[in-house]
Amino acid sequence: MKQSRLLMPTLREVPADAEAVSHQLLVRGGFIRQNAAGIYSYLPLGHKVLQNIQTIIREEMNRAGAQELLMPAIQPAELWEETGRWGIYGPELMRLTDRHDRRFALGATHEELITSIVRDELNSYKKLPVNLYQIQAKYRDERRPRFGLLRGREFLMKDAYSFHADQAGLDEEYDNMYNAYSRIFDRVGLEYRPVVADSGAIGGKDTHEFQALAAIGEDTIVYTDSSNYAANIEMAETLDRYEMQAGTVAELEKVDTKEHKTIEDVARFLDVDVKTTIKSVLFNVDGETVMAIVRGDHEANDVKVKNALGGLDIQMEEEAKIIDLFGCEPGTLGPIDSPVKVVADYAVKYLVDAVCGANEANTHFLHVNAERDLADLTFHDLRFVVEGDLAPDESGPVRFARGIEVGQVFKLGTRYSEAMGATFLNEEGRAEPLIMGCYGIGVSRTLSAVVEQHHDDRGIVWPKSIAPFDVHLIAINAKDEAQLALADRLYKELSASYDVLYDDRKERAGVKFADADLIGLPIRINVGKKAGEGVVEVKLRTTGEVIETTVDDLAAVLT
Ligand code: ATP
Ligand code: MG
Ligand code: MG
Ligand code: MG
Q1: Whose CA is nearest to atom 22 of ligand 1?
Q2: What's the pLDDT at 486?
Q3: 297: Cβ below 6 Å to ligand 1?
Q4: What confidence score (pLDDT) does residue 218 get?
Q5: Residues paired with residue 435 on neighbouring β-strands, in sequence order
Q6: Which GO terms describe its molecular function (predicted)?
Q7: What's the pLDDT at 197?
Q8: φ and ψ of 548, to 5 deg
Q9: Would you state the pLDDT for residue 225?
Q10: For residues 321 and 386, what is the distance between their CA atoms, to the nearest angstrom?
Q11: Ligand nearest to the CA of 439
């Protein structure tokens, strides 16, 4: 592709509304443009990356035995009424009516639709198991669309649904998908962790999320290096649940840690029974509101804390009664990966000590906080995590990190098939509800997550596997005939083996280099002053390494 012909509107300025680095770079690099809040067009470069990711997904899904199909984005309301989700899903579900006043939903997900197809077409155990997937735009009227493609209102998803005659079949397919997802995220170049997650509103029991590690991530995950176990912090408590249960946020906000130094103080102040009532505490630290989530069951948690922290040197261990781990928002700090010192019944005291700097025993946490601007503390910043059987047999620090949920695998069981009467005939000829699994990947979110992990201060550094082009060929001075002639020749030759972007524009070298760094193709070939001698420069985007080579040796250098 000749760059002079390519729609690639790069920008020097950081777009004002873009907080996330990936959002900034994707806009600046001319990969995407916003059309409405959370709604984007993929320009040619962005579209190429998206297609490369889809190719990897398709290869791995097909390899895992799944079959691709395509369902409609517009779904009749009646299907959602069968499962009750027309009501439950709430305002996130985008709804519309046709000219005959028939109601429809724009597909936020496709459990209902796929189940309706399968119930009509698949009635015997002989046809099971089956795994059907599609790659399609999904619509969710997110309360806070933000961070560019990371949380859109129209976004691209790969969603798969499997149907089984028995639980063992589902278990097997779940592992199969888990492995396929691992291969997919390995291949796109993400550093990620599969974490145990909360099954939430979708229903079902076993579920893992695939979390790409990134400071901008909206999820907090807890893991150890020495075991395979990792969990989403949501497994413990969430702010939403907290708000629903407590309903006393305003009152809790009045708690002042300078005055109310222990949980007991807070309990007295609020006139509640500490053991059973306080699940969360909000308090002011230097004028900022901070929340701690507290557990009621002292003894059980005592054991849990000890298990969870295994080999750690636990400060105040004897006193550890309630709470175990906590993390804080990155913003200023990046992912938190601090060994956790701990806490207790004295959660509030500890927090006061830690944040206000009173207690030497908590130096690690203090250190973390010392680098933060306390004014940046938000509601979410400090949370006490309560659940998850972390690394009981293994020692090693418990770590926190922020994650971007790029995928999720679910054992749904019969939640949808029972509600929708989707049955099959078993070997004895009896009707049983189909057993289901579902498996999603945020395709467009994955694209953005890769940029969060692969960039430097000059721009994106695409992993080879999904880069929009393999090679960026640059005629440094396209007005120089020798340079242009050699670059033209190389463009033709290289195009036989590589997808080449050829910067043939009559721009200044500085402009070309800045654009090249910004869009981040893995290999750059500069055709410059030594073109007459048949010498060019190969530059690697990852390391910045420059190799001068004759054109004759170029092929060897590139491999
Ligand atoms: P989140 O917790 O971020 O809201 P979710 O759990 O609601 O995501 P799922 O229903 O599990 O999302 O959808 C499957 C995948 O689709 C997610 O793992 C994520 O990668 C992607 N996804 C979900 N919502 C969005 C969105 N608003 N924008 C982009 N990708 C999304
Ligand atoms: Mg969601
Ligand atoms: Mg989620
Ligand atoms: Mg999810």
Answers
A1: 442
A2: 98
A3: no
A4: 86
A5: 164
A6: proline-tRNA ligase activity
A7: 81
A8: -90, 135
A9: 61
A10: 11
A11: 1
CA of 361 to the centre of ligand 3 (A): 36
- Write the residue with the smallest CA distance to atom 23 of ligand 1: 442
In the predicted model, residues of the chain with pLDDT beneath 70 are 198-205, 222-390, 392-400
**Residue 153 alpha carbon, nearest atom of ligand 1:** 27
The residue contributing the CA closest to ligand 1 atom 26 is 151
3-state SS of 204-266 is CCCEEEEEEECCCCCEEEEEECCCCCEEEHHHCCCHHHHHHHHCCHHHHHCCECCCCCCHHHH
pLDDT score of 175: 97
Q: Quick one: pLDDT at residue 402?
A: 83
What is the distance in A from the centroid of ligand 4 to the CA of 416?
Answer: 17
Q: Using one digit for the tens of pLDDT, what is the confidence trace for 131-163?
A: 999 999 999 999 999 999 999 999 999 999 999
- 155 touches ligand 1 (CB under 6 Å): yes
Tell me the whole-structure pTM to 2 decimals. Answer: 0.77
Say how far apart CA 385 and CA 255 lie, in whole Å: 21
Torsion of CA 238, 84, 105, 107, to 10 degrees: 60
Q: Is 409 in the pocket of ligand 1 (CB under 6 A)?
A: no
